[in-house]
């Protein structure tokens, strides 16, 4: 007898039952009426029917399986008709169920005489299925896992099961191969990046992310043929059935979730492999997601976790998963002092996002203690914004479009909203230019840049095309000028280098070459310097205590300035003031002892790769400031559409990157995120972003708020 023949009556079928086998108490005429059907059907059915026909005359199954039934396969074989013994000489025990309200074979127990064993509507096949509890489970249950896992059925929420049918399960120090079979009913709900859990015994769970999806044929068939393709394209073609294909999901383990003795949910590295046939379940608990991805439960709100642009929903309240940035000293210094970068193409919502995030830093409970401060007092930060589009002064204004539902949602997730009353606009006075200042009601304070600042920052008047020899010569000229007793203004310096006697002194003495001296003079006489330095306004040096004030937002708009070089000069002046005073042991107290967040829009313009000597000086100073930011309480918040242009020495100090849509391959590569996320970046929609912050959480995708917490026009 063949193996497949022997197991026919024990086969568990989930197909709709066909009444090919009559009830056990049916008459001989009904059985005879089915004879032709059996003969025309599958030959395998005839084998099974031979067993049924040999038992004709019994009123029900109880008539056969009684306490008087022979209790061993050998005795039963001897009692069967000759035809049946011929077909099943050795394996007769396999054609009948081993358990019917007790064990017939292989056990000393007998079936009680009062047991009801009649199955008038079922064949032997379905009878064997209904009485086999082990075969009713689609996976192996774990003794210590919750009852919900034990009772998973085809209608459960499981995506599918872990399988070894195609690839072996394995886990190594360098990676893992965990393949899951996804049932046809759940295939539309799973995608790349979907988070799942796989239970172990004792309540532990593997927390994983779907890293690859794959279809395979269920049956051996060549569907790469002209006939097949025409049949499928035909309007009369039968739709493809999902049951005809294997749908596989490859899982990337992220961690194992478990509870400590005191009940706290925590995580550890994925060091165990799940068992075959274990269910693959969607993540439905917000705490499991936050713990699995190491997301803080509070801090600076950045957005909501998403997969493929769709918000991740849980069974918790609220159902979305908020993403927070650590902003305290519980695990080191706040991450703002380890610097942040927002990058995205034009029109992707960088300013909108920046407003929402920067507003979170300006709450009363966000206080910092500077290591260098003598009193070690906790202070709010001062937010300084370089604003090329005159949009950030709107932090002073409420968003009048917010309704009560919006506000309730913000409050439920600890999102700060509403204007910052201490917002001020500091406007550089530039000859021939006037600031409109009509985008907000924030107080406007006018200032000018004194030429005296150039004494220790010669690069402020160094043109980009100035050679190394010319830059050295400029420093010599400035050094001698600031030693003189004349007022240290730009006009006096211009008169100094235009003096023929001065020229002869430096050239004839050999201190400067003639061509170098003339080149310096041409660049210093540029007309725009006279429009910036020493204007009729308060010197910025005299209002440092008004600019750098704890809890204040100080905005420096430059949109009204038509000349890009003047804009750059103003921005570089503010940046140099902050850096010089932060790094100096004798810096101005207003800067030295105040936590400062410097938000720099179009950061690539000021922190680009060095192209000359003066550029290298700028970069080296800001690299030093970035490295010492944690100690000195200085955080860089850089906003750019060209991250690849930021100098590497500064870029390496950035801990948190918020990546919006980018289409520039060089820009994407420079961000150094995992390959699977690199491929997503060009397809991110507005408001959708990838967060790469290794010291905060695993890399994730989030969606920012759909409403601005302050005015945005």
TrEMBL record:
GO terms for molecular function: ATP binding. Residues 32-41 have a biased composition (Basic and acidic residues). Keywords: ATP-binding, Nucleotide-binding. It comes from the Archaea. Residues 18-48 are annotated as: Disordered. Residues 334-561 form the Helicase HerA central domain. This is ATP-binding protein. It comes from Methanosarcina baikalica. The lineage of its organism: Archaea, Methanobacteriati, Methanobacteriota, Stenosarchaea group, Methanomicrobia.
């Amino acid at each position: 007898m063949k193996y497949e023949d022997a197991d026919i009556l024990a086969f568990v079928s989930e197909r709709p039952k066909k009444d090919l086998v009559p009830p056990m108490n049916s008459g001989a005429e009904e059985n005879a009426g089915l004879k032709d059907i059996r003969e025309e059907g599958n030959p395998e059915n005839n084998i099974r029917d031979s067993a049924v026909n040999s038992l004709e005359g019994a009123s029900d199954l109880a008539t056969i399986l009684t306490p008087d039934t022979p209790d061993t396969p050998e005795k039963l074989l001897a009692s069967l008709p000759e035809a049946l013994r011929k077909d099943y000489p050795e394996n007769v025990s396999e054609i009948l169920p081993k358990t019917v309200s007790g064990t017939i074979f292989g056990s000393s127990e007998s079936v009680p005489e009062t047991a009801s064993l009649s199955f008038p509507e079922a064949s032997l096949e379905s009878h064997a299925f209904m009485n086999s509890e082990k075969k009713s489970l689609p996976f192996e249950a774990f003794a210590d896992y919750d009852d919900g896992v034990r009772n998973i059925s085809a209608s459960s929420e499981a995506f599918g099961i872990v399988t070894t049918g195609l690839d072996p399960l394995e886990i190594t120090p360098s990676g893992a191969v965990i393949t899951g079979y996804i049932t046809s009913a759940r295939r539309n709900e799973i995608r790349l990046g979907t988070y799942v859990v796989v239970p172990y015994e004792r309540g532990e769970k593997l927390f994983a992310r779907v890293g690859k999806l794959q279809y395979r044929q269920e049956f051996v068939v060549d569907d790469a043929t002209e006939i097949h393709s025409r049949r499928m394209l035909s309007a009369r073609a039968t739709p493809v059935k999902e049951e005809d294909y294997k749908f596989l999901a490859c899982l990337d383990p992220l961690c194992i979730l478990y509870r400590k003795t005191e009940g706290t949910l925590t995580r550890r590295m994925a060091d165990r492999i799940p068992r075959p046939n274990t269910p693959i379940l969607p993540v439905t608990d917000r705490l499991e997601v936050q713990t699995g991805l190491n997301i803080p439960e509070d801090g600076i709100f950045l957005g909501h976790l998403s997969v493929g642009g769709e918000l991740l929903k849980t069974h918790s309240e609220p159902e979305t998963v908020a993403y927070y940035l650590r902003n305290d000293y519980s695990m080191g210094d706040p991450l703002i002092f380890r610097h942040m970068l927002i990058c995205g193409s034009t029109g992707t919502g960088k300013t909108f996002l920046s407003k929402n995030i920067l507003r979170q830093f300006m709450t009363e409970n966000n206080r910092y203690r500077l290591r260098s401060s003598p009193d070690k007092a906790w202070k709010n930060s001062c937010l300084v914004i370089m604003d090329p589009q005159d949009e950030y002064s709107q932090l002073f204004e409420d968003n009048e479009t917010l309704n009560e539902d919006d506000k309730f949602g913000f409050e439920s997730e600890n999102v700060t909203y509403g204007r910052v009353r201490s917002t001020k606009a500091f406007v550089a006075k530039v000859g021939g230019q006037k600031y409109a200042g009509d985008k907000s009601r924030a107080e406007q304070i006018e200032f000018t840049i004194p030429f005296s600042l150039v004494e220790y920052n010669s690069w402020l008047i160094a043109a980009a095309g100035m050679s190394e020899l010319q830059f050295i010569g400029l420093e010599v000229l400035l050094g001698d000028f600031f030693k003189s007793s004349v007022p240290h203004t730009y006009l006096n310096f211009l008169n100094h280098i235009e003096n023929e006697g001065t020229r002869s002194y430096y050239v004839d003495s050999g201190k400067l070459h003639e061509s170098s001296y003339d080149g310096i003079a041409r660049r210093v006489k540029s007309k725009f310097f006279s429009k910036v330095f020493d204007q009729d306004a308060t010197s910025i040096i005299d209002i440092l205590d008004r600019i750098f004030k704890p809890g204040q937002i100080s905005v420096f708009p430059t949109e009204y300035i038509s000349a890009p070089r003047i804009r750059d000069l103003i921005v570089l002046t503010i940046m140099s003031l902050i850096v010089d005073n932060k790094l100096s042991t004798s810096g101005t107290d207003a800067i030295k002892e105040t936590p400062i967040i410097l938000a720099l829009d179009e950061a690539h313009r000021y922190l680009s790769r060095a192209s000359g000597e003066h550029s290298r000086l700028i970069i080296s100073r800001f690299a030093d400031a970035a490295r010492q930011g944690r100690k000195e309480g200085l955080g860089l918040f850089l906003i750019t559409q060209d991250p690849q242009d930021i100098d590497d020495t500064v870029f390496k100090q950035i801990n948190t990157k918020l990546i919006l849509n980018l289409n520039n391959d060089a820009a994407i590569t420079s961000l150094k995120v995992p390959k699977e996320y690199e491929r997503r970046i060009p397809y991110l929609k507005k408001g959708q972003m990838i967060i790469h912050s290794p010291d905060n959480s695993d890399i994730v995708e989030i969606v920012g708020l759909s409403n601005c917490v302050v005015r945005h026009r």
